[in-house]
Amino acid sequence: SSKITIAIDGFSSTGKSTLAKQLAKELGYVFVDTGAMYRAITLFSMQQGYISKDYFDTESLLNSLPSIRLRFEFKPEMGFAVMVLNDVDVEKEIRTIAVSGFVSKIAELAEVRAKLVEQQQEMGKDKGIVMDGRDIGTVVFPDAELKLYMTANAETRAKRRYDELLAKGDTITFKEIYDNVVERDYIDTHRDNSPLVKANDAIEIDNSEMTREAQFDLVMKFVQEKI
Ligand code: C5P
């Protein structure tokens, strides 16, 4: 059997990363969550004071882009890779609602996307990769052998994210999460640069009413047809 590239795109909180992680583990492939990279650049911008509510110093961010180093570091004890920004593990910080609130603004910038897409293509050059994001099947790996486009209704997605953050001990209201999910969907699908769209050859999966296990079994059937 040959190694393939699996591209998973879709709206926020559709379980893309969970599925991608499961697939990578099953197949012995590399898993890359590209959202983490956009989130890390967002965290950097917040730390430097380049972005805040009602303020965005795009120029300063673009000037410092070349100095931002991102990498994934595999943690055997956790069984997955964490995001490392300029040699600091930021896996926890990038998942906060504060970062979620700004990330789609950062992801609109063509220069930011160009930098990250280049790094993503490099990571996938030998195939055997499962990458999730918004533009993987359309821009990063237009020739991917298997492309999935994941959707679910906004309430279901917000509820999943809410339960996740609650379990982590975050104090947050359902409405805050729901509003953030809806706002990010809007910005991600309407931006000029690499908007979220379904690739022509992607398989759409609406998992509003699907269990993780059922979804995994379904997708593994698609994988078997390709390898
Ligand atoms: O996947 P996640 O929800 O963590 O992604 C956070 C944000 O990063 C998205 O809402 C989107 O604005 C941006 N993103 C993107 N392109 C990708 C991955 C994420 O624009 N490939």
TrEMBL record:
One of its GO terms (cellular component) is cytosol. Pfam families: Cytidylate_kin. CDD domains: CMPK (cd02020). Keywords: ATP-binding, Cytoplasm, Kinase, Nucleotide-binding, Transferase. It is an enzyme of class 2 (transferase). ATP binds at residues 10-18. It catalyses: dCMP + ATP = dCDP + ADP; CMP + ATP = CDP + ADP. GO terms for molecular function: ATP binding; CMP kinase activity; dCMP kinase activity. HAMAP family: Cytidyl_kinase_type1 (MF_00238). NCBIfam families: cmk. This is Cytidylate kinase. It comes from Flavobacterium faecale.
